[in-house]
């Protein structure tokens, strides 16, 4: 797929202008165009004055290159608007995208004036761009057919273009509606069995659409049995349907207390096209625009935006849980009015109670729209929520059983292709796998990586292969990691420190290598099914990846020595803080997690690594980020805010002047939570005493005022009044200042 983007009217406007002024105007446009194109996996072929030509599918091929090209075009439209706001420019563009065959010269040199692509598709893309209305992305028929399931279009009048005998049918892209930020599905491992489970998902979706109702399906299984693989297969079935279906996917994180609604935030960001690196102003604009497109009553847009804001990292006012849940539900209902909405939340066993409560709220209150909620979880979910889904006629649980021996044999045969295992090895594999498809698949990959894959069923190899069988799926993953070169394995271990989702720049920082070579190595690891690239990165200019399975990340992380983990967690925290900017939002909790891990591991190791932050510095940084995370969590989940404040208190000594401020903050959380006024009163009093010990009379008075409120709520009005009178006397003896207010 080829993309052409051209500035409208720029050539005429720049006639007679100083060349340096022209270059100064074009530089931010060229830089932003390159970032957006490369973020979607495209390659900038060349800049021709004010025009940009980009290729998707050369030199690197992706299965969804047409979609990537159109999404890049839509992002370029937004980027130009942002440039106009930031630099006071008045730029406008039109974009054309064509898909077809081309001759690719991989050795072409831009310095020698050589183009990488040649063919009719290049000319067609240029002609489509010329015919496009200003401020639009116009595509040809091949692109439209390849992307109509995931991009909204409106038909245009056929375009009469030079070099074509007949007018070309063309469409203008309206918006991307499906699977933003989701990992590219890898189907390298075939799906066997699961016919009944697939039918349950398909029938539930059909019922959801037919009845315009909400439906919940929870897929429960032990690690490696195939939860994510079943979701991938369902995703493919959804994609093959003719009607427009909106697919949104989020994941619960296994770390970072207080990242309560991370998965929901991913869904909202995907719908609004928000990146984690977007400035607050841009995030606000995108969120407001997204809400205004799905809400029928314009007067409610501001109310809804204020309650969605904390999910995307913006400040929000105080709202009750009921208000938040209502606003979030109405937003999702608004999306579902445009077409059936499928929401996938992975790893529900790591979800906080508040997110599970919101899912239950959806089940009870969504009406009149087709909304299907799919969750994946390990059995531990029912330890946390024993009644999950119970009592709802619209809730279904799929318990994935291990594969039968026959199904495992079918999986092994599909992966082996023409190769054949010795009978004894085959039998032992079935026995050791115990129906776990991940074990079987990882074993085949391991012997392939080691060069032990036999061409024939040689009995003499049975003994040799038999020695390779680990006892568990974790052990087989560890054995497979050992087949990697030290450099590749090191990158995988570094990625595991960052988390199940990670970025090439972060891995390069932890590894101390240049990002270009790291991307090449990660691409090779993706080819070997250790990880998979995300369709779109949540960080501008970064390639995003997801581990192929959570167990791969867990096993890789477990192999890092404790002292090295501490150093790498610190580096991960610094990198995330650097890319998060002045308003980290929910990333504050992730950064706090990394600094806390760095501190805990350094304490356990007995010291910090040479050249790294001291234990005191790590504690200070972890406490700082826990405090920021608590402030962010307050609007969404007071319980999470309390955990963050408590973590900050645990890291801050009582002699630290910051300690009483943290006591005041956590006491405020107690005061706002029903039934905890006694705790609030006692904690405010502790804060007063510590403030006075540090000589901060004004801060002590503030804590006393808040203590009086907790006392008042408990019905002791006279005691509260006496406290306030005492404070007034104290402040009257102090110099004038804002505290008197």
Structure, explained:
The protein is an alpha/beta fold and 741 residues long. Among the domains are: 2-174, Nucleotide cyclase, GGDEF domain (Alpha-Beta Plaits), CATH 3.30.70; 195-399, P-loop containing nucleotide triphosphate hydrolases (Rossmann fold), CATH 3.40.50.300; 405-481. 53% of the residues lie in helices and 11% in strands. A hairpin with a 2-residue loop joins strand 2 (43-48) and strand 3 (51-55). The model is unreliable at 178-187 (pLDDT under 50).
How would you name the CATH homologous superfamily of one domain?
Answer: P-loop containing nucleotide triphosphate hydrolases
Number of helices, where a helix is a run of at least 4 consecutive DSSP H or I residues: 30
Approximate strand percentage? 5-15%
**Briefly, what CATH class of one domain?**
Alpha Beta
Helix content: 40-55%
Chain-wise SSE layout:
Elements: E1 2-7, H1 10-13, H2 19-39, E2 43-48, E3 51-55, H3 65-87, E4 93-98, E5 103-104, E6 117-118, H4 120-131, E7 137-139, H5 141-147, E8 151-155, E9 171-176, H6 195-211, E10 214-220, H7 227-239, E11 246-251, H8 262-272, H9 280-294, H10 301-308, H11 321-336, E12 341-346, H12 353-365, E13 371-377, H13 381-384, E14 395-399, H14 405-416, H15 423-433, H16 437-449, H17 462-466, H18 473-481, H19 486-498, E15 501-503, H20 504-511, H21 515-527, E16 531-533, E17 544-547, H22 550-558, H23 562-580, H24 587-605, H25 615-634, H26 638-651, H27 658-672, H28 677-693, H29 697-713, H30 717-732
Parallel strand pairs: 4-7, 10-13, 10-14, 11-12, 12-13
Antiparallel strand pairs: 1-3, 1-4, 2-3, 5-6, 7-9, 8-9, 15-17, 16-17
Helix pairs in contact: 2-3, 6-7, 8-9, 9-10, 10-11, 14-16, 15-16, 16-18, 18-22, 19-20, 19-22, 20-21, 20-23, 23-24, 24-25, 25-26, 26-27, 27-28, 27-29, 28-29, 29-30
């Amino acid at each position: 797929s080829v993309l052409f983007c051209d500035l409208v009217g720029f050539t005429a406007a720049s006639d007679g202008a100083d060349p340096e002024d022209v270059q100064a105007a074009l530089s931010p446009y060229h830089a932003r165009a390159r970032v957006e194109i490369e973020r979607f996996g495209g390659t900038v072929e060349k800049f021709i004055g004010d025009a940009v030509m980009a290729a998707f599918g050369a030199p690197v091929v992706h299965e969804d290159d047409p979609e990537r090209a159109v999404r890049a075009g839509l992002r370029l439209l937004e980027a130009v608007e942002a440039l106009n706001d930031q630099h006071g420019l008045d730029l406008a563009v039109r974009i054309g995208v064509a898909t077809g065959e081309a001759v690719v010269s991989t050795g072409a040199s831009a310095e020698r004036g050589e183009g990488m692509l040649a063919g009719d598709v290049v000319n067609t893309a240029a002609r489509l761009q010329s015919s496009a209305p200003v401020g639009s992305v116009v595509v040809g028929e091949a692109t439209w057919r390849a992307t109509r399931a995931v991009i909204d279009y409106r038909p245009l009048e056929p375009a009469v273009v030079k070099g074509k005998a007949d007018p070309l049918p063309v469409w203008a892209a309206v918006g991307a509606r499906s699977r933003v930020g989701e990992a590219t599905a890898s189907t390298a491992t075939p799906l066997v069995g699961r016919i009944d489970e697939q039918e349950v998902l398909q029938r539930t979706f059909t019922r959801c659409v037919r009845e315009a109702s909400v439906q919940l399906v929870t897929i429960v299984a032990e690690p490696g049995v195939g939860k994510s693989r079943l979701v991938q297969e369902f995703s493919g079935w959804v994609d093959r349907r003719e009607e427009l279906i909106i697919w949104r996917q989020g994941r619960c994180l296994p770390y970072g207390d207080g990242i309560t609604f991370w998965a929901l935030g991913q869904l909202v960001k995907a719908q609004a096209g928000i990146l984690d690196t977007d400035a607050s102003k841009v995030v606000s604009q995108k969120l407001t625009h997204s809400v205004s497109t799905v809400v029928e009553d314009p007067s409610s847009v501001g109310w809804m935006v204020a309650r969605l804001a904390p999910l995307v990292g913006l400040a929000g006012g105080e709202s009750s849980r009921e208000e938040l849940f209502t606003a979030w539900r109405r937003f999702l209902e608004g999306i579902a009015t445009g077409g059936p909405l499928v929401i996938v939340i992975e790893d529900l066993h790591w979800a906080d109670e508040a997110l599970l409560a919101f899912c239950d709220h959806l089940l009870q209150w969504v009406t009149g729209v087709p909304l299907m909620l799919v969750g994946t979880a390990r059995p531990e979910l029912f330890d946390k929520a024993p009644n999950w889904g119970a009592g709802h006629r619209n809730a279904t649980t799929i318990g994935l059983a291990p594969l039968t021996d026959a199904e495992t044999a079918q999986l092994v045969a599909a992966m082996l292709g023409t190769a054949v295992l010795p009978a004894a090895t085959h039998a032992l594999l079935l026995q050791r796998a115990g129906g776990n498809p991940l074990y079987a698949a990882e074993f085949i990959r391991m012997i392939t990586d080691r060069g032990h894959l036999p061409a024939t069923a040689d009995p003499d190899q049975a003994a040799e292969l038999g020695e390779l069988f680990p006892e568990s799926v974790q052990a087989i993953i560890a054995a497979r990691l050992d087949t990697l070169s030290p450099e590749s394995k090191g990158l995988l271990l570094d990625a595991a420190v960052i988390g199940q989702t990670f970025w090439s720049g972060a891995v390069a920082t932890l590894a101390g290598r240049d990002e270009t070579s790291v991307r090449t190595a990660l691409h090779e690891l993706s080819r070997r099914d250790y990880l998979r690239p995300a369709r779109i990165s949540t960080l501008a200019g970064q390639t995003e990846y997801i581990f192929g399975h959570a167990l791969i990340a867990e096993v890789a992380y477990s192999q890092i020595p404790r002292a090295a983990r501490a150093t790498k967690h610190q580096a991960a925290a610094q990198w995330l803080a650097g890319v998060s900017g002045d308003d980290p939002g929910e990333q504050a909790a992730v950064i706090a997690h990394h600094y806390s891990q760095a501190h805990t591991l350094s304490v356990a190791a007995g010291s910090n690594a040479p050249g790294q932050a001291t234990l005191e510095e790590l504690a200070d940084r972890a406490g700082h980020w826990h405090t920021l995370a608590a402030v962010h969590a307050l609007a969404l989940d007071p319980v999470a805010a309390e955990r963050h404040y408590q973590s900050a208190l645990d890291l801050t000594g009582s002699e630290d002047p910051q300690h009483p401020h943290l006591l005041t903050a956590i006491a405020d959380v107690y005061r706002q939570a029903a039934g905890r006024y006694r705790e609030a009163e006692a904690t405010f009093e502790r804060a007063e005493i510590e403030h006075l010990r540090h000589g901060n009379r004004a801060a002590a008075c503030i804590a006393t005022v808040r203590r009086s409120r907790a006392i008042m709520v408990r019905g002791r009005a006279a005691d509260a009044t006496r406290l306030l009178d005492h404070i007034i006397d104290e402040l009257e003896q102090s110099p004038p200042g804002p505290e008197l207010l």
